[in-house]
Structure formats: structure tokens, C-alpha cells
Design a protein that fits this description.
alpha+beta; two-stranded antiparallel sheet; 2 domains; Tetrahydropterin Synthase, Chain A; elongated; 6 helices
Length: 140
């Protein structure tokens, strides 16, 4: 959830990719696994994903970028997240080698209630192009 100056509270969904590399195996095992005798990659992935999600929310809120301008600022927001995550991941013995925001999706309720921006929002926020452009264009 983010607070937009024009639309108020807006729930957004973000999609992206991150790549990590274990640079200090002993530290990684001690910090991530801890006293658990058994761990699975899914458990580690869940923990890392939770941390990335939390930092994404912080970065978007701190950036104060309006929701309609987020698509033009993926690199800026991604850079803020990378810098925050690099320090935290280093404490765990891992390195964040890549972080990419692929898309940020707005709720349909926002798009449908704002016909003047519907088509622009659809185009700006869809990387895959699988949305219905005709619906957005007809709202203009």
C-alpha cells in the first residue's frame, strides 16, 4: 500500500527478479539457517523474498514518486532497494548481484475510475502486453 498525492492510498503489486550469490558460506549457514538442522532452498527463498518485499515497500514510500510516474522510475527505486539490501545481505554472507523491477501493477479499481489515464497506465505498467488495450482505449 502506498499513499499517492492524487489518488490517496493505492495498493500496488510489483514483479521482478533478484539474484544472490553466497560469498561467505559459514556466515550464510549461521545467519540464515541458524540452529535448524534441516533447511530447504524454498525456506531460504521465502526469507529473502520477504526481506526484498519489505525493502521495496520502504523504497517506494521514501521516494514519494506518484503512482502514475513509477513506471518511469524503476531504475531509481531499484537502486534504492539494491543499496539497502546490499548491506543486509552482506550481514548474511550473501551478495545481491542483480535486482530488476520488471513491472508494477495498479489495481483495476484505480484504472477503471480514472478514464483519462486508463490507456496511459495500461501501457506504462504492462511489460508483457497481455492486457486488453481496447478496453483502456475505449475509456478515453
Amino acid at each position: 500500500m502506498m499513499r499517492d498525492p492524487e489518488f490517496g492510498p493505492v495498493r500496488i503489486r510489483a514483479f521482478g527478479t533478484y539474484v544472490v550469490r553466497v560469498v561467505e558460506p559459514a556466515k550464510f549457514i549461521a545467519q540464515i539457517v541458524g540452529t535448524n538442522g534441516v533447511f530447504k532452498t524454498g525456506d531460504v527463498d521465502e526469507q529473502l523474498r520477504s526481506q526484498v518485499t519489505s525493502r521495496f515497500v520502504d523504497a517506494v514510500a521514501e521516494s514519494k514518486i506518484p503512482v502514475l510516474d513509477l513506471a518511469a522510475n524503476y531504475d531509481e527505486v531499484g537502486g534504492q532497494i539494491r543499496s539497502k539490501m546490499a548491506a543486509e545481505f552482506s550481514e548474511w554472507g550473501i551478495e545481491l548481484t542483480q535486482f530488476v523491477i520488471e513491472s508494477i501493477a495498479l489495481p483495476m479499481s484505480l484504472i477503471s475510475t480514472c478514464p483519462r489515464v486508463s490507456f496511459a497506465v495500461y501501457c506504462a505498467f504492462s511489460v508483457s502486453g497481455t492486457f486488453s488495450r481496447s478496453r483502456g482505449a475505449s475509456a478515453l
